[in-house]
Amino acid sequence: xxxxxxxIMAAFILASLMGFHAAMSADRPxxxxxxxxxxxxxxxxxxxxALAAIAKEHRNVQVISRAVDLNPYNIRPxxxxxILLRPRGIDTSAHIAAPFGPQDAKFSDIILTMxxxxxxxxxxxxxxxxxxxxxxSDYATGTEDDVLDAFGKPMAFYETVLxxxxxxxxxxxxxxxxKP
Length: 180
Fold this sequence. Notes:
By secondary structure, the chain is an alpha/beta fold. The chain is 49% helix and 12% strand. It has a 4-stranded parallel sheet, with helices on both faces.
């Protein structure tokens, strides 16, 4: 057996012992899941804001958004958030809501929920996540303030929620990326 073959074999053994992803990619991005009730409002907006911040700051972070109670008849993004994000060059109109599941729990490094109830649901259904699930507010600022729910409310309320998300998402991405 050649030295090169032995090195490759050792790498595969190490990969199986340490977990394939960790051994094969020490520089892999931090993976964040944003979670809310239906994945049509706050969580998709948080994901969209995070993607913009990641691109602007060149952060090594990946983000997704998910639902704790997906309504299969309501899977499109809330129109008011789509309208508010459009002037920023962010288009969420093609988003399709997705439920939070075992693979999300397994592969997410950080799970950021919009409310303490969402956090409780994630931990109750996926106890292995207890050390990596936080409310967005707690993770970003150390306070336990729920992100307001604009569903079915007037545009002005959506603007308030967007302001709230603006103040939290960038801080959360910076913290996750380990940069000031």
